[in-house]
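Retry 2 of 3 after timeout on previous attempt. Resubmitting structure tokens to design endpoint.
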């Protein structure tokens, strides 16, 4: 029996010192793996802690058919995949909330006799980094230099976003009129 197998066996029998040694031996290995997956040190540290906690809870299920490090990697990978799914669900939920709030606003305006122009639907479909400069420029009259200061981006970036955004806006509105 290898030293690692002996530590696992002792940890499974309730030896906290053996468990501590196992985690000390594998912590940096798991963390480095998760850094490569997440590309974010803080997320990797959080997932490493969670993976070790999960392995501690499930240690009795480790059967020794694979290396202990492989078992930990499996746990860490599954936690990471769960995190990705959770973030995707959160993004989808936020998008649905946003769509619903736009629909409510559209309904409220039409109920009060205000027309909801197609341009607002087109603006809504743009990413915020394009939509914000267009609104600041064309609805509120700010100069490109003022917008650049507000958004903390170069003036050239503001010009480009406004130009490309308006081009896409015109294209979308023209397609809408042709239907």
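Retry 2 succeeded. Sequence:
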């Amino acid at each position: 029996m290898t030293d690692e197998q002996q530590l696992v066996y002792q940890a499974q029998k309730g030896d906290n010192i053996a468990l501590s040694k196992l985690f000390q031996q594998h912590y940096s290995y798991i963390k480095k793996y998760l850094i490569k997956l997440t590309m974010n040190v803080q997320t990797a540290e959080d997932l490493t802690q969670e993976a070790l906690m999960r392995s501690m809870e499930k240690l009795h299920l480790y059967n020794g058919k694979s290396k202990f490090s492989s078992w930990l990697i499996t746990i860490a990978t599954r936690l990471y995949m769960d995190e990705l799914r959770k973030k995707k669900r959160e993004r989808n939920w936020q998008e649905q909330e946003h769509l619903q709030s736009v629909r409510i606003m559209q309904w409220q305006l039409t109920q009060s006799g205000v027309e909801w122009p197609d341009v607002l639907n087109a603006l809504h479909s743009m990413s915020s980094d394009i939509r914000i400069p267009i609104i600041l420029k064309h609805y509120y009259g700010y100069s490109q230099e003022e917008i650049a200061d507000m958004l903390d981006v170069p003036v050239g970036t503001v010009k480009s976003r406004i130009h490309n955004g308006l081009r896409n806006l015109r294209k979308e509105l023209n397609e809408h009129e042709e239907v």
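Attempt log closed. The CA atoms of residues 7 and 22 lie 7 Å apart.
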